[in-house]
Amino acid sequence: MKNNSVLINEFKELLLSSEELELILSGYKKVSFKKGDFIIKQGVIVNSYYLVEKGFLRSFVIDVSGNEVTTNFYLEGSIVLEETSFFLRTPTKEYIQVVEDCELWTKDFDTFQKHFNQSEKYREWGRAHLAQNFFAFKEHSLTIITESATDRYKKMLANNPEIIKKSSLKHIASFLGITDTSLSRIRKEIVK
Fold this sequence. Notes:
By secondary structure, the chain is α+β, with helices and mostly antiparallel strands. It contains 9 helices and 6 strands; from the N terminus they run ααβββββαβαααααα.
């Protein structure tokens, strides 16, 4: 496992001792999922988080009208975690589904807690990821309110072209808070 570049890259900036790195890496297990599989379903208590080595996933919720609303996308190198359920030990409201066959590294809650308590640098890594996810969520929420649909799509196109390539228009539209029809119109206008 030490030779896995995704895991090594994730922790290299922590400047861990070889013992600390071995401890942290020892808690990961490699798992594979096929397109369409769910790694998390609404109503369960999330007991693991994942690091994407290969593949593409998305998270979504079901709104009051029964529609899927995409809440996030996960590319290679992403950490896949439904934080509220994982840390508060409450049932999740989200689904996380594999969009493209995936190879993931996973660590369960108990192992995470053990390593979190044993390594100060790992604690800082975890806190940094939580803060980063919070700021990204806040930014996305504010963008939905303060920017036009066209600007939101252009920003996604500039900052996350891989998501545009790998995801369906329906999923992108729901993430941007617009209809499929509006997204199609925006795309046509941009091409002109």
